[in-house]
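Fold it.
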Amino acid sequence: TRIAVHAGELFLGNIGAAEHYQYGVTGDTVNTASRMDGLNKYLGTEVLVSDEVIQKIDGFLSREAGVFVLKGKAQSIRVHELLCHSAVSEDWQRKACAVFDEGLRAFKCGSWSPARKLFQTSAELFRGDGLSKFYLALCDRYERQPPGEGWKGVVELEEK
């Protein structure tokens, strides 16, 4: 099961025309949450929340998963992986999060080799972590083909 949570305005009501009405939600917030749900699969994560959500909740162990431009979107979005309730988190999880965060900082600075080493450690600590593997592959790709002048650490996705 994968879950994505985003916050914002939406439309709730009947949508359609004369013979075919459907009651539901629509809007950019719904579309973004749907794209984040797809991002879960792409990153190998289970629960992603947007920056808008993480800022309003307490008591959870989380780590930033990165800043992404989702397919069909013009604006980037910062997403976080929600791991567990803080009260049940273990020392190894908090340490693994710290190592991953350090790797993400190195990645955003374009320091591919140091980032790779930190993501390898994170993958070991998290026992085969999909998010660490995603960034390991990205470090390899960006080392061969740098993202370009003025890159600010934002990952552009071409898949839903």
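The chain has a mean pLDDT of 91.
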